[in-house]
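Thread: "does anyone have the structure for this chain?"

Original post by V.I.:
We have the sequence but no experimental structure in hand. Need at least a predicted one for the grant figures.
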Amino acid sequence: MTKDLRRLISEALEEDIGQEDITTNRTVPADARCRVRLWAKQDGILSGIEAFRMVFDRLKADISQWDSLGNGDRFADGDDLATFEGGARPVLTAERTAMNIVRHLSGIATLTAKYVEAVDGLSCKICDTRKTMPLLRRLEKEAVVHGGGTNHRHTLFNGVLIKENHIAMAGGIHKAVESATAGAHHLMKIEVEVTNLHEFEEAVTAGADAIMLDNMSLEDMGEAVERAKGKKILIEASGNASLDNLRAIAETGVHLISVGALTHSAPAIDLSLIIEQV
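Reply from O.Q.:
Generated one for you, tokens below.
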């Protein structure tokens, strides 16, 4: 991850800087140093602090006196998240890229925590999806974990998830599961997406290890859970889960609720970076 993260940060800095930071280089003395304070303007959960630090390191900011909270730490409005000293030019040049990363990832962690808290006391886990920004998936999925959630598959290679379009092209649920079973190794689990109880029964009969209930009613989800009792089948609910209906979905007895909004709709946390002369 470190090598990939360095490459991502280098490309992000190149995108933002271009040939040079002309404003900073024309106004700030080359040997100037500064004291930096990253602080919160709202409550939240921190994620991406290593990436935040790495942005400054990539520009050789010569950071000293570094102190910060850790990933997964809760913070309140007004709290310091990180303080350090460094070269003023590289700090000023890197600040926007560093802030964009930590604000975005902390927003994901914070939203995830709200979903996790909504099902507190129930035996149901909240997990993410592959609805992530291209090239940011690892960081975004780490942020979900920092917020108390769990990860669904990271890549298409991680597991078999037979969805509506796969079923249509394969010629039905049974054929899709049969082909997937024949083409996967014996340790690979197979999940099937269904939209009604008839398809659910097909998936059970076909030998699915996990079944995703896509946009099904609470009544039908509860019935599916009842029908799966005594069988080693993991039941996942998916589709239009929100903070308003999340607990009701979890109370049906499903094992997982996957929420695309954790990564594709989390608002960035409001943070501020204050820089002063040393």
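V.I.: this helps a lot. The CA atoms of residues 259 and 267 lie 15 Å apart.
O.Q.: and The chain has a mean pLDDT of 97.
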